[in-house]
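[scheduler] slot 2 assigned
[scheduler] job type: sequence-to-structure, two independent chains
[scheduler] chain ordering preserved from manifest
[runner] begin chain α
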Amino acid sequence: MYHVAVCDDENIFLEDFGRMCGKILREMDVRHQISMFSSIRGLREAMEAGERFDLLCLDILMPGKNGIEFAYEFRQKNDEISILFITSSTDFLLEGYGVRPIQYLLKPVKWEELRRVLADDIRLNHTPTTVNVTVGKKNHGPAAFRNPLCREPQPWLRLCTGGSGAVLLDVLDAGGENASLAAVFPLPWQLSH
């Protein structure tokens, strides 16, 4: 599940941006959750309570601690969560790059820009590239894999049981035809990534 936190003190923008993220992720067929916060304090409290996020969408100009200050503080503890700055000002562009954000988007945010950023973040930062197939105690190594955030099975990787009860791992071409038989595993088996 791709979990997005949106933090902005402008309630109308917060709701519109959260709704836009949700629509784009549904269009991309990505299982997701959007959590919205009107202050850095609220976001921090959620994170301290154990809520995990894949992407933080932070407004820069907010009362109290701004988005960049929070991002610098946050990066000291966590280097894995993606950060997207959403702002109406270009004044902090150079300062903000110190926390390695995935992008800056200027308000009003354009649909296609946000769609590209979300797709890039999922592809580059939140998609395992391999799975390990384990049969009994023997690990049969990594097999190519696609995005686990998608609801539907990936069209080019298919697991099925063979006539003898073995598990077949087929790699399919773009037309859905078998391009190669990647592996045959006797039962019991399990996948991990």
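[runner] end chain α
[runner] begin chain β
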Amino acid sequence: MFVIFKCFHRFSILVLFSAASIGCMGSEESLRANQDQLVGAWTLVSWESQAMDGTVTQPYGPNPMGQIVYSGSGRMSAQLMHPNTSLTEVTDRFFAYYGSYTVDEGSSVVIHHVEGALLPTWVGTERPRSFTFDGRDRVILNTMPDAQRTNGAVSTLVWQRVSGN
């Protein structure tokens, strides 16, 4: 009877370990799928910013222009602009930055590690954005409150995958 229990005990441990491994692999694969789904070029559909007092604005108007690119090797770049920007308005109506990125899969946050930016105070900083997918070809990024750029406002940027990606 001890031999049967010992064999059953080993079998139970093996089954539990196998089930746990399969469960972990599934979640890792789905989490990695989220990161892989970010890779590509995205065009800006909308940008709304909500101030701490609840006021909602569209920083670059109702039809902003922009592109964000995430490479498979962990690099990113973003350019955003008001569609009617003259050269004299560039500093107020255009913004760009680049660097590397990492994804915190567990909390669905992409972190932009800024290496260069139009705004010098961004260089060397981390810019976390929570992300959610709306289908395969749309991603919504939400910024964290940023006192340096937006006086604590939180922005929601909707991006559409560029076709052919």
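[runner] end chain β
[qc] chain β: The chain has two domains: 1-38, 39-161.
[scheduler] slot 2 released
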